[in-house]
Amino acid sequence: MKTLIYLLLPLLVFTACRKRLDSFLFGNDNSITEYLLDNYTGRTTLDVGAAYHVEDSMTHVFQFDISNGAGAQPFMISAIYTGEISRIATDTVILYCHGTADHNDFYWPRQKLYSHLGGTHRYGVLMIDYPGFGLSDGSPTEENMYQSVNGALKWLKANGLTNNRLVMFGFSLGTASVCQVAGNPNDFEMQPSKIILEAPFASAEKMIQDASVLGFPASYFVSLKVDNAIEIKKATVPLLWIHGKADTFLAIDKHGEYVFANYGGPSKTAVRVPGGDHEDTPFVMGYDAYLAALLGFILQ
Q1: φ, ψ at 79 (rounded to 5°)
Q2: What backbone phi and psi angles, to 5 degrees, belong to 81?
C-alpha cells in the first residue's frame, strides 16, 4: 500500500500543480453579465478613492469583432475606453493590457488612475478583456490574447490613432502582449512609440520552474510559450520598467531584472519599488509618485 502511495504521489502533485499553474497564467472570470465599475464589490487590490473619479460621460463600454475569414462566427471582445473617442485622432492613447485576474472590473481602479495621468483625461485609456475574461467571447489562450490586443490596435487605428501617439502598458500577464507587439511589429496593426512593463515575467518556462518542485518542462503544465526575455531583445522603442522589490508572485530578481537587462532598444528606465508586492506597487509608491514616474517617461 505504501509503495502504491509513493508511486501515485508524483502524479497527484503534478495534477495539483498543473491546475494551480494554469490559474496563475489565466485567472479569468467570465461569470459576470455586466461591468459594474464603481459599483463593483468584488475583490480588488487598489482603492484609488474619489480623487480619481471618471465621469460616466467619459466612460465608454463597448465591443469589437476580431473574427477572421469570410463567414467566420463573430468573436466579440469587450473593452472600456476613458476619454473622448472623438479625440483619438489627436490625443496620445494608452492601451492597457491587464494581468491575469478576473476581468476589467478588477482593473478599473488602475484605468481611473491612468485617466488622471498629467491631468484629467490628458490621455485616452483603452482597456480590454482577453477572450474568456469578463464579457469577452472565446477561451483564454496565448494566440487569442494576442489577437484581441491586435483587434484593439485596429479599433484605435480606425479611430485615427497613429503609431507616434500610441503607448502600450502591460501589467503581469499583459506584459506578454506588449513584448510581442514591440518585438514583432510586422505582425500587428500598429507599433507603439513607447512601452511600459509593470511586474513582467521572464517566460512561461521560468514561471513554471518557480512554482513547481517537479522537473517537468513547462509544456506539461501550460500551452503558453511566452518568452518576454527574448521578445524584449527585439524592441526598438523606449522602455519603462516598474517592479516591486517584494513581489512574491514574480520575483524581481528572477523575472523583471532579467527582462530589463535583455532589452535591446534605444533607452530604458527602471523603477524598483521597495516594499512593493505584485499588485500594490501604485499604492506603495504613492499614487502621485507613481503617476509622476509614468508621465515623466511618456513626456521624455
Answers
A1: -145, 160
A2: -115, 130
What residues make up the domain containing 266?
2-299
Task: Provide the 10 A C-beta neighbour count for residue 260.
Answer: 20
Our count of domains for the chain comes to 1
Task: Write b or e for each residue in 90-114: b if 16 or more Cβ atoms lie within 10 A of its Cβ, otherwise e.
Answer: ebbbbbbbbbbbbbbbbbbbbbbbb
Q: For position 80, which CATH number holds? A: 3.40.50.1820
Q: Compute the distance between CA of residue 171 and CA of residue 178 in angstroms, rounded to an integer.
A: 9
* pLDDT number for residue 1: 46
- Residue pLDDT, tens place only, 109-119: 999 999 999 99
Structure confidence at residue 70 as a pLDDT band (50, 70, 90): low
Residue in the block written with cell 513584448: 179
Mean residue pLDDT across the chain: 87
The one-letter amino acid code at 135 reads L
Say how far apart CA 45 and CA 149 lie, in whole Å.
24
User: How many CB atoms lie under 10 A from the CB of residue 18?
Assistant: 17
Residue 25's pLDDT band (cuts 50, 70, 90):
low
Mark residue 226 as left, alpha or beta (left: phi above 0; alpha: psi -120 to 50; beta: remaining): beta
Residues comprising the chain, all counted:
300
